[in-house]
Specification:
Layout: H1 3-6, E1 7-8, E2 11-12, E3 15-17, H2 27-31, E4 37-40, E5 43-46, H3 56-60, E6 66-68, E7 81-86, H4 100-109, E8 114-115, H5 118-133, E9 142-143, H6 148-157, H7 171-187, E10 194-200, H8 203-210, E11 222-225, H9 226-234, H10 251-254, H11 261-266, E12 271-275, H12 277-288, E13 298-302, H13 318-331, H14 348-356, H15 378-394, H16 408-416, H17 426-444
Parallel strand pairs: 7-8, 7-10, 9-13, 10-11, 12-13
Antiparallel strand pairs: 1-2, 3-6, 4-5
Helix pairs in contact: 5-7, 5-14, 15-16
């Protein structure tokens, strides 16, 4: 399936709905952080403008009606040379008794020509972030750009905070840029013949590969779910031949896969790590309303509980996976490896030069997504807004979800937009039935003219 086939309107989405498995339970409706889901006609519907591909609906759906569209492993065969770019969260999926060199060598066994850890890109991004934070003129707190679900959350729900997002590529993109350009030079083959595949823990990054918000043309060619390769590696452990030294990222950089890991590596200024989409929303609401007076310089925000280790495309409990990464960090060197010439192919000086030249900056400005357009001009918009507020005032405002919308206000928006009618609300339907019952009772007491007694 090509990209054009998988686009939904203007936006690409990796989160999909298997209608045959949907039972209209409204779990996803209540939990979606951008109110992108409705239940109509007994099935869930996902609004492509509001959806941020966070994967919350995938994680909570009791019937697995939501899933993520990712690339199959066989996609690597399209390229002359293929590189696996495993998320640092992947390390937390395997027991610590299995050496990381063994795990990463498993990707060579599966058919990749090379493994290049995304954590190496994290070391580059750390340097770029430190460089950015030197300038005190940036609006505080600065917000990490690593989690694409958080970036889209701000585009959709908190557009006033766009200037707070650090304009630096995510580690996935930085690592792919370095490895693709380097291998093209060393192997003497065009970059388009080198396939770089991110081994992703989440649907948001799978979407970011297909449609990056501001990275320009990403160097990542595909995204393969961690859950798709885990069993293949585990079932072939005895056959996997270890490539000595294949794991090259420093212990600290592996921490990017778990909540708090990015802040630990940055190590400067007042930093706060928040994970779990509901927690992130609360913090962003405080920042947007100017009630956030804690003086933090940098916010590391992750949509998934525990960070990337809690992504919907992982296989291990996020708390267990986070603990495993902590153990790996302790077992490996805690030295900040990039200052010793890592990642491979670039010296510290070369990386610094690239950063100062803007090589890892976001290439286009982030733009908000308009999610609610009530009218074509100001007068119509004001009229419809007044109608919306009137409808909200008439509703019970208990956000029961029985109408298929997450809140009474969201239901009122749907009514104004012509997507729902008032009687879709259970309470409004009951009121209408009571009115009809009273009218029927009144009518039942009336007699036709031929039976009326004229003397009365």
């Amino acid at each position: 399936m090509n990209d054009e086939d998988t686009k939904i309107g203007e936006y690409y989405h990796s989160v999909r709905l298997a209608e045959e498995r949907c039972i209209a339970c409204t779990h996803c409706v209540r939990e979606c952080p951008t109110e992108a889901i409705r239940v109509r006609g007994g099935k869930a519907e996902i609004n492509p403008v509001r959806c941020i591909d966070c994967g919350v609906c995938i994680s909570i759906c009791p019937t697995h009606a939501k899933y993520a569209q990712t690339d199959p492993l066989e996609a690597i065969k399209r390229f002359k040379y293929s590189v696996a770019l495993p998320s640092s969260a992947a390390a937390g999926q395997f027991k610590t008794s299995i050496p990381l060199d063994k795990v990463l060598s498993g990707f060579i066994y599966l058919g990749f020509d090379e493994v290049y850890e995304a954590a190496l890109g994290g070391e580059i991004v750390t340097l770029a972030t430190r460089n950015y934070l030197k300038d005190e003129r940036h609006p505080k707190p600065v917000i990490s750009s690593l989690c694409p679900a958080i970036v889209r959350l701000i585009l959709v729900r908190f557009p006033s905070l766009l200037a707070h997002i650090i304009p630096v590529e995510a580690p996935m993109d930085a690592a792919a840029r370095v490895v693709k350009e380097s291998r093209s030079r060393h192997l003497g083959i065009p970059p388009e013949e080198i396939g770089v595949f991110f081994i992703t823990p989440c649907s948001a990054k799978a979407t970011a590969v297909k449609q990056p918000e501001a990275a320009g043309n990403t160097h990542v060619d595909g995204a393969i779910a961690i859950s798709d390769v885990f069993n293949r590696i585990m079932s072939n452990l005895e056959r996997i031949e270890v490539v000595p030294g294949i794991a090259r990222a420093s212990g600290l950089s592996l921490g990017w896969g778990a909540a708090g890991g990015e802040n630990t590596l940055i190590g400067k200024g007042r930093r706060l790590a928040v994970d779990g989409i509901a927690n992130v929303v609360r913090v962003l609401e405080l920042v947007e309303s100017d009630e956030y007076h804690h003086g933090y310089d940098y916010l590391e925000l992750r949509a998934c509980t525990g960070g990337c280790v809690g992504g919907p495309l992982t296989v291990e409990d996020p708390f267990v996976a986070k603990n495993r990464i902590d153990e790996l960090r302790a077992a490996r060197s805690e030295k900040f490896g990039i200052e010793e010439g890592r990642p491979p192919d670039l010296t510290y000086g070369e990386i610094t030069e690239l950063i100062e030249g803007g090589a890892f900056d976001l290439k286009t400005p982030l733009r908000p997504r308009p999610t609610l357009q009530l009218g074509t001009d100001i007068s119509e918009t004001i009229s419809l807004m007044n109608k919306l507020e009137s409808i909200v005032a008439s509703l019970p405002r208990i956000d029961c979800g029985s109408c298929g919308a997450p809140t009474c206000r969201a239901f009122a928006e749907d009514v104004v937009l012509g997507k729902s009618q008032m009687t879709d609300c259970t309470f409004k339907l009951r009121e209408r039935l009571q009115e009809l019952a009273r009218e029927m009772g009144s009518l039942s007491e009336q007699l036709p003219p031929t039976l009326k007694n004229p003397r009365k």
